[in-house]
Write the structure tokens for this entry.
Amino acid sequence: MKKSALRIILILAIAILLLLLGKFTAFGEWFNLNNISSVIKSSGPWGLLIFFILFAIGSLIHIPAMLFILVAILIYGPFEGAIWGYLGVVIAMTANYFIVRAFGNKALHDIQNRRLQNMLSKLHEQPLSTIILIRLVFWAAPIVNYTLAMTSVNSRDYIFGSAIGLIIPVAVFAAMVHLFQESIIPMVL
């Protein structure tokens, strides 16, 4: 119990530090549409790999996933960009899982608190469907990534549940960006 509480405190401290890094430093400010797009465009054949790496780093420091998906759509077009954005978010969520799991292990699973265990019971009983539902609602929220990584959910259920649950949110976002580009922007220009 004591060890689990210390792990949770460590993860919270890391999460807060990464949030502060992402929101209040020049490093975090660098993560904007223009900078990310410029680096990817100027990287030639390495652009996609750099996109995935930046997405994973951005996710850790709480940069919204929608920014990266938007970059992918603007660079690669609505369909291909949506695919690369989707793969990017799945890669970022997977990286988050393994990094947080390395520090936090299964700390939430080990806490002997009836209320917490009741909340986690569905996740333990039906991990895949619960993660799909969580991703449909909260899709790429960093706090969700941190929390799920500290439960007893195995990597297979986490990755597949996230991958399935993120299809609809990414597709809807990509369709909205495309609609905005094709219909709304020409109407106001």
In short: The two ends are 61 Å apart (CA to CA). The first helix runs from residue 2 to 24. The chain has one domain: 2-188. The chain has a mean pLDDT of 89.
